[in-house]
Specification:
Number of helices: 15
CATH architecture of the largest domain: Orthogonal Bundle
Mean pLDDT: 78
CATH superfamily of the largest domain: MetI-like
Number of strands: 4
CATH class of the largest domain: Mainly Alpha
Order of helices and strands: HHHHEEEEHHHHHHHHHHH
Low-confidence stretches: none
Shape: elongated
Largest sheet: 4 strands, antiparallel
Radius of gyration: 27 Å
């Protein structure tokens, strides 16, 4: 009996602690507790984190510099090389690939063809030196995660220029994420400022701002992109084109969030805590920044996460139709552009590997955004 009594007491104490933790938890802790219960959102969050980390450390994880054309001239349009431990000559403790050789063949009218030499192994090595890079944009380095002792390895194959598709894909994910981040940041700042002013003051200020907002929303995106692309000088550097595309995406995607912020502030500006702050002499900027926007924080965070896939889609679509980033910049849109010819569809299916990364990236953002929206809704 005493053991059962102690067990009941222990269970009661645990229940009481759980209730206290729930009622004393912050808003962030409550959102995280609800978010963890959604399996699809958690899986998407893990995939998204993996892709962000792989893009962030792409120079180290990828074996070659993706911007150098003709990196492997002996293996253009080459199929993916999968490391193996066994072949017809036996097994090895170290993974290896077979060497490739080019020769002229009578069957192809003496054109160059690539043959796999199964008698020559190229063993993989880890943490080997290669092309120089700057990790995170400022940390110099030349050590890569993997490579082969002689020759080159291409996990996802190569394109018509001999560039490594694996290296290009990792860098492309990071480029698209950077464009999306800059665009979302610009749209976020503009939306908070414009929507905050319109919702706080109301009246004729709100009417004028809403006219401007509606005018921006009615501008067709594709003709605008085509007009700006026509005025861009062809000698623009890749960095300058990247900067302009990011600015453009940010300046045309702020109206939706601005209207939501304005609607929330219109309903909250007459609440007692806002009137108390005003009676204490707080200026308008302080009231909006310290009192009104924090009451809307969870929704703003969700809106930011959901905006990311649309920014990535916009950058990819622009680069895909030739109006965005161009070679030698590696972005998902630039890589998808190379997978549009009939020859690729029939003969070089590995060109579509970046499409898988693009789908996973966009869907991960969508599922994480949906999970955050459900977790942040108190009802």
């Amino acid at each position: 009996m005493s053991m059962n009594y102690k067990r009941d007491q222990r269970a009661t104490a645990l229940d009481q602690k759980a209730k206290e933790a729930y009622f004393t938890a912050s808003q962030g802790q409550l959102i995280w507790a609800r978010f963890k219960k959604q399996r699809a959102a958690m899986i998407a969050a893990v995939l998204l984190a993996a892709m962000v980390i792989s893009g962030l450390f792409a120079p180290f994880l990828s074996p070659y510099d993706p911007t150098i054309a003709g990196r492997d001239k002996d293996y253009t349009n080459g199929a993916p090389q999968i490391p193996q431990f066994c072949d017809k000559n036996g097994c090895s403790m170290r993974p290896f690939i077979h060497a490739v050789e080019r020769e002229r063949s009578l069957a192809t009218n003496f054109r160059w063809v690539t043959k796999i030499n199964e008698d020559k192994r190229l063993y993989m090595q880890f943490f080997m030196k290669g092309d120089k890079y700057k990790l995170l944009g400022f940390i110099p380095g030349s050590v890569h995660l993997f490579g082969v002792d002689e020759g080159k390895i291409h996990l996802f194959g190569t394109d018509e220029d001999g560039q490594d598709i694996f290296s290009r894909t990792l860098h492309a994910v990071w480029t698209s994420l950077k464009v999306g981040s800059i665009g979302v940041f610009i749209a976020f700042v503009l939306a908070l400022i414009i929507g905050g002013i319109a919702g706080y003051y109301g009246g004729w200020v709100d009417s004028v701002i809403q006219m401007i907002t509606d005018a921006v929303r009615t501008v067709p995106a594709i003709p605008l992109f085509m007009a700006i692309a026509a005025f861009m000088p062809p000698e623009l550097t890749a960095e300058a084109r990247f900067f302009y595309i990011s600015l453009l995406l940010g300046f045309i995607n702020w109206p939706t969030l601005a209207r939501r912020v304005r609607t929330h502030l219109l309903s909250e500006r007459n609440q007692e805590y806002v009137l108390a702050a005003q009676l204490c002499g707080a200026p308008a900027g302080h009231v909006i920044r310290r009192h009104l926007l924090p009451s809307f924080t969870s929704y703003i965070i969700v809106d930011l996460v959901i905006s990311f896939p649309y920014m990535v889609l916009s950058e990819t679509a622009l680069s895909f139709i030739g109006l965005g980033l161009k070679d030698p910049v590696s972005s998902l849109g630039v890589m998808l552009q190379k997978a549009t010819s009939a020859d690729v569809l029939l003969s070089y299916q590995w060109y579509f590997i970046p499409v898988i990364f693009f789908i996973v990236l966009v869907m991960s953002f969508v599922f994480v955004g949906d999970g955050l929206r459900d977790a942040a809704d108190p009802y």
